[in-house]
Design brief:
disordered N terminus, 2 strands, two-stranded antiparallel ribbon
Length: 166
C-alpha cells in the first residue's frame, strides 16, 4: 500500500464498511446496466417484429374506415408499437435508470468520503468517475437513453405517415 492510499486506521471500522458498500454499489450498477441492456434489446426485437408485421400486411387490403377515412390496419399496428415503446421508455427512464443513477451517485459519495480524508482514493474508487468522463459531460447518458427511444418513435411516426399517404 502506498503512502497516498487511505489506511484502514484513518477510517476505523468505517473503512471495511465503505469498501463493502462500494463493492455493492458497483454490483448494483452492473445489475442495472445489464437489465437495461436486456430491456432495450427486447424493445428493438419487439419493434422490428411489430413494424415488420405492419410492413407485410401492407400487401393486403385491410382498410378500416374511421370517420369516413380508410386507414390501413398497419397504421394501428405501428401505433401499438409506438405506444409500447413509450410505455417501456417510462419504465426504463423514470424507474430503472433512476435506480442506476442512485447507485452511481452513492459510489461518488464513497469516493468523495475518501478524498475528504486528505488521501487519494484507491484506483477502484475512481471507476464511476472514469466511466462518466468517458461518456462526456455529467448527465450525458440521459441524452443517449432519450435518443434511443426518440429514434424508435420517430421511425414509427414516419411509418404511419407513409401508410396514411399511400
Amino acid at each position: 500500500m502506498s503512502e497516498l492510499e487511505p489506511k484502514k486506521s484513518d477510517f476505523g471500522d468505517n473503512f471495511n464498511f465503505l469498501l463493502e458498500e462500494f463493492k455493492i454499489c458497483i454490483k448494483v450498477q452492473m445489475h442495472f446496466n445489464d437489465m437495461l441492456l436486456k430491456i432495450r434489446t427486447l424493445v428493438i426485437t419487439f419493434i422490428v417484429s411489430i413494424f415488420g408485421t405492419a410492413a407485410y400486411l401492407l400487401s393486403q387490403i385491410l382498410d378500416i374506415n374511421i370517420f369516413g377515412f380508410p386507414i390501413h390496419i398497419s397504421a394501428f399496428i405501428v401505433l401499438f408499437g409506438i405506444i409500447l415503446s413509450l410505455g417501456i421508455f417510462v419504465l426504463d427512464y423514470f424507474y430503472y435508470y433512476k435506480m442506476l443513477i442512485g447507485a452511481v451517485e452513492r459510489s461518488y459519495d464513497i469516493k468523495t468520503r475518501f478524498e475528504e480524508s486528505n488521501h487519494n482514493p484507491y484506483e477502484l474508487f475512481k471507476l464511476p468517475v472514469k466511466i462518466r468522463d468517458a461518456i462526456g459531460k455529467e448527465g450525458k447518458s440521459k441524452d443517449f437513453v432519450k435518443i434511443f427511444y426518440v429514434l424508435i418513435i420517430a421511425i414509427g411516426v414516419v411509418f404511419i405517415l407513409f401508410i396514411i399517404i399511400i
